[in-house]
Amino acid sequence: MGHHWGMATSVVIVDDHAGFRATARLLLEAEGFAVVGEAADGAEALRVVDALAPQVVLLDVCLPDVDGFEVARRLTGRANPPCVVMVSSRDGGDFGSLVADCGACGFIAKSELSRAVIEEFRTRR
Asked: Which of 19, 15, 56 is nearest to 38 (CA)?
């Protein structure tokens, strides 16, 4: 089952902007999540998720190497996949069915990131 971090939900943050990763980490840790790793691009994301087996992956839509939706497809196509939550600075309406098609649990605008939204996505799986 991967690692157990007590009762806290483990999260990996994938975004090429270090500023957003830092902000998201502070917010999620303040709300009781265990941020166990970060990645700046798709290739690193796959390695980090393999190594850490987080319960949730916060995944930016626009990565410098691989499209975020493609990374989501690879992560969710595995046995015991994490709950992948797509994030973007743009509105989710821009992506239509891409979010559903890639296997992600949901989409959240970066400005609306919160524990409540992530928990809602997890229970919907």
From this structure: 15
